[in-house]
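Why this split exists: single-chain examples teach little about how molecules sit against one another. For that reason, every record in the complexes split bundles all components of an assembly together and asks for one structure covering all of them. Below is a record exactly as it appears in the raw files.
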Amino acid sequence: MLAELVCFNPACRATYGITEVLYNCPRCGGLIEVRYSGDRMDADELRRTFRERRMSNAPLEASGVWRYRELSPFLDDYSSVVTLREGNTPLLDGRLAALYGGLDRLWFKHQGFNPTGSFKDNGMTCGTAQAVRLGMRRVACVSTGNTSASMAAYAAAAGIEALIFLPHGNISFGKLAQALEYGAKTLEVEANFDQILALVRVLAEKLGIYLLNSVNPFRIEGQKSIVFEMLDQRDWNPPDWIVLPGGNLGNTSAFGKALREAREIGLIGKMPRLAVIQAEGAAPFHDFVKCGGEFHAVEKPETLATAIRIGDPVSWPKALHEVRSSCGVVEKVSEQEIADAKAQIGRCGIGCEPASAATLAGIRKLTAKGVIDRGADVVAVLTGHLLKDPDYIYRYHTGKLEAPGGVKIRSTFGNQSVVVPNDPDRIAALLNN
Ligand code: F0G
């Protein structure tokens, strides 16, 4: 297989070597993607190979990303791979959540089961492999928290230096703690995600540091495996809908690319529709798709779902293409809707972080509008683990959660702990009430 870099802009499509360090096209400024050509195994052989590898304990086969390497063959050899056994995340049946969302049945593909607790690990193992292949000594990213946690872990495992830039005061403590524990040099900048991304791009060029944000096309190649693994778990029967939260829109780009490529190869016979859900206070992509015209960034994005607090998502041109190619939709949901949906996912015994719960809030809205049918076959992707943001959970259940601007979030499904005396009679009386 030949792998090359190509400009995503249909009016340009300039091509570049696979080992060039590029995030944007030098000719037109467009986004860059990885393209493959040449012969590959046929669909049946691929399906069989992927299934057989699940029996193996070899690190490359045990990874839920590298198991599907024929579908992202950008490396010549695999000596640069650093794996933490990423992927391998379950598809979980969320009965109560289905009811809440207005569906007969709902499946969660839970990316929180990854080594650092979010879907970023699927992309980071590929981005890190490319960094090692290129002989990079330092990697950097700006992050709302999960990318940085993941990059810090993979850089540490690879023995390279990690430089992390965070929006000061706007990431959850759990995510910041991960970066520190994995040994990353961590800088908190007095600016928002979009402003820091511009800053980091300048620094990366100035200092020759490899950028591992989702503008890095190899991150996108890795995140395709979330879709491949989900299809494999469903014996290659695609669902009607895949629902995911949208922030910087890297995942939307990756999912669409994965689906188009799986269809081209013959691994699936139909395209599921993508439903991308944004938080109301950070919904530039939703507004753009709904209203048309020019893309307008949201200057001061606000949401308690800090993972998706992004006003100027870099990957929007790719995401737009993928939403259109899949006959998809984009919806936005309120802080209250996210908080209540999150509590319902918790009640299934599953749980997730706030950004992930935008999926169920979006599903509830889309079924109410008749866009998604009650009987539809739906997979929602939970992008991060429940324990990423325990502060949010505690505040919700104790009625102390406030949306940006100070509006109180109702604790609709609140569950408070009760302080009791060390007295069996009084505790028994309380429990029998
Ligand atoms: N869900 C979670 C838990 C995330 O951490 C992110 C993005 C998203 C959804 C949105 O995904 O950007 O591909 O549309 N987090 C990034 C970060 C921006 O820095 O960790 P997207």
